[in-house]
Specification:
Blueprint (H helix, E strand, L loop, with lengths): L1 H14 L19 E3 L3 E4 L2 H12 L4 H15 L9 E8 L4 E7 L9 H6 L18 H12 L4 H14 L1 E2 L2 H16 L5 H5 L13 E2 L2 H13 L1 H5 L2 H12 L6 H5 L4 E3 L2 E5 L2 E5 L6 H11 L12 H21 L10 H4 L2 H8 L20 E6 L5 E7 L47 E5 L2 E8 L4 H14 L5 H6 L3 E4 L14 E4 L5 H9 L3 E3 L8 E7 L4 E6 L6 E4 L1
Parallel strand pairs: 15-16
Antiparallel strand pairs: 1-18, 2-10, 2-19, 3-4, 3-11, 4-7, 5-6, 8-9, 9-12, 10-11, 12-13, 13-17, 14-15, 17-18
Helix pairs in contact: 2-3, 3-6, 6-9, 13-14, 13-16, 13-17, 14-19
């Protein structure tokens, strides 16, 4: 099978033609120019959500207000990637205090569900769908934490646009329609309750396609209750009771008590300096520091003399990824339960130790010895200099398949990312946050804000973050080019879920990577293939301090838009 697979991949890759955009300036792979504005900028994965955020800014709201309003709209307009059944993470640059803040708004596992239950059921991993992988949804609490610390407009104003669109409807965009047409039938085939009522019956019994009007009055009612009753309307009121009762009926364990005791956590972002730029991520239970570990390793190579997209570039990047992800598998977990050695993992000396293991050919690695699935990303900046980098997801696209009755959203399946092997950092425990893939990012220069950005896509996210930083810093691309540039990823290797490394894995490349690179990677012992939809989606805002101008970017892999005023 491997020979057949590789032969097929090689044939198809050799037929790929890189089509230039015939642009007068810049890189030929860029899809458009950078968006420029002086007073504010919004970049999301949906044009209507971007316009909602922009309207909030123009009416006197700040970046946090606009981000909440846009995220609420995305939960309606892009249910295949996010929603209030999921979690949220954010990094905020506050223009007033000139300081970075980090918010971990991820939920915890049910208090009544134990590791012994899974063992008694003979399970070696937590199922991907159904009631068992459901953890507490943290997004709504995340909104209110952000709003309480930085917001200015009432929540009723911020949720009003999404409520109106949910009631009156809006046309589905190309990519979201494609995902909905495939995902909703999948959940229906599983026999999960309320799928038809939530996604078809509210739309006249049909599933809308691209350009057709999609409505969700149930979600409008849920948003209205949250806007008027605050976060407790979700975590302690009828919504929580409905969720708890429903999950229990489905044989799950998430309860109204689990929601009532939920809390988000403000955390200190962590960073490494990459060639004079400080790149910031959030500490575990997320995987952000994997991007930092990769950059620490890659900083030891002179990319001024290595061509973008060359076999040498992809080889060094892939090997750095493998090293970082082995550490990810062993050390990344909820730090309330396991003391992840963040400082050591990000140190220069440790990066040098790991770098020394990289040779000229593809290799397998173990974790270092230390003694001490779809998503949305969006970013907003305002005239006061505040910038927010926000990511939000249900995991595996729409989530677990568990849609509580008459609420208009699906619950996440993040608990799938726990390990069921005893004694590991990420082993399942009650009231524990699972290992998380979604990560926001930020870059500062000399203590001042530079770029707020993120890249969606499960395990690809640290790889995407590292590629964006290198595109900007090493290869001199502008903000739009950095996101439009051809991407690649590496799959395989160890995972925090307990999977171990068996071989050198697979490098998957987009069609913009030349065949000479593919051939060169094969010569170095890599298996090379391709896929679609695995390379995430990117939004970014850059602050040009010299000209006092924001730059915005949103790439062509999604339906998104960057807009400012």
């Amino acid at each position: 099978m491997k020979t057949s697979f590789l032969t097929t991949c090689c044939l198809l890759l050799s037929l790929h033609i890189v089509v230039a955009q015939d642009r007068v300036t810049g890189e030929t792979f860029a899809t458009r120019s950078v968006v420029l504005a002086q007073n504010g900028m919004v970049a999301t994965s949906h044009p209507l959500a971007t316009q909602i955020g922009l309207d909030i800014l123009k009416s006197g709201g700040n970046a946090i207000d606009a981000a909440i309003a846009a995220n609420a709209a995305l939960g309606l307009m892009e249910p295949t990637g996010c929603g209030i059944g999921g979690d949220l993470f954010a990094i905020v640059w506050d223009g007033k205090t000139q300081k970075l803040y980090g918010l971990n708004a991820s939920g915890r596992s049910p208090q009544s569900l134990t590791l012994e239950y899974f063992e008694e059921q003979g399970m070696e991993k937590i199922p991907s769908h159904g009631p068992l992988p459901v953890s507490v949804p943290g997004a709504v609490d995340g909104w209110f934490e952000l709003h309480g610390k930085f917001g200015s407009k009432p929540m009723t104003d911020l949720l009003a646009p999404a409520i109106e669109y949910a009631e009156k409807g809006f046309p589905l965009t190309e990519l979201i329609a494609w995902y909905i047409q495939r995902t909703v039938p999948f959940f229906e085939s599983k026999g999960f309750p309320n799928i038809d009522d939530t996604y078809r019956q509210q739309n006249g019994g049909t599933l809308p396609d691209e350009g057709e009007i999609y409505k969700n009055p149930y979600l409008a009612n849920t948003y209205r209750a949250i806007a008027e009753g605050g976060r407790d309307a979700f975590y302690k009121g009828d919504i929580a009771k409905t969720i708890g009762k429903f999950i229990k009926e489905q044989g799950g364990f998430l309860s109204a008590k689990d929601l009532a005791t939920h809390r988000s956590e403000w955390v200190e972002p962590v960073s490494v300096n990459y060639r004079g730029y400080d790149v910031w991520e959030l500490p575990p239970n997320g995987q952000g520091i994997a991007a930092l570990q990769m950059l620490q390793i890659l900083e030891g190579y002179d990319f001024a003399n290595i061509e973008f997209g060359s076999a040498e570039h992809l080889h060094l990047f892939t090997e750095a990824k493998k090293l970082a992800f082995e550490d990810r598998a062993k050390y990344y977990a909820d730090m309330d339960f396991f003391e992840t050695p963040v400082e050591r993992l990000l140190s220069d000396t440790y990066a040098e130790e790991r770098r020394q293991q990289i040779g000229d050919r593809a290799n397998t690695y173990g974790a270092g010895e230390i003694s001490d699935g779809e998503t949305i990303y969006m970013t907003v900046a305002d005239k006061e200099g505040t910038m927010i980098s926000l990511i939000q997801s249900n995991y595996r696209g729409m989530g677990s398949g568990m849609a509580p009755p008459k609420l208009g959203f699906m619950l996440q399946d993040r608990s799938e990312l726990f390990s069921l092997k005893r004694g590991q950092a990420n082993t399942y425990e009650p009231n524990k946050r699972p290992f998380h893939t979604i990560i926001p990012a930020f870059i500062t220069k000399d203590g001042k804000p530079w770029v707020s950005f993120g890249v969606m896509g499960g395990d690809f996210q640290p790889q995407g973050h590292s590629q964006i930083v290198m595109n900007l810093v090493d290869f001199g691309m502008n903000l739009q080019e950095a996101g439009d540039a051809p991407r690649w990823d590496h799959t395989g290797g160890a995972s925090p879920t307990g999977r171990t490394t068996e071989d050198t894995g697979l490098v998957r490349v987009e069609s913009g990577i030349p065949y000479t690179t593919v051939r060169g990677m094969m010569d170095k012992g890599h298996r090379v293939g391709f896929t679609r939809g695995a390379y995430g989606g990117y939004q970014a805002i850059l602050w040009d301090a010299e000209n006092q101008v924001y730059q915005g970017a949103s790439e062509s892999r999604k339906d998104g838009q960057a807009a400012g005023y």
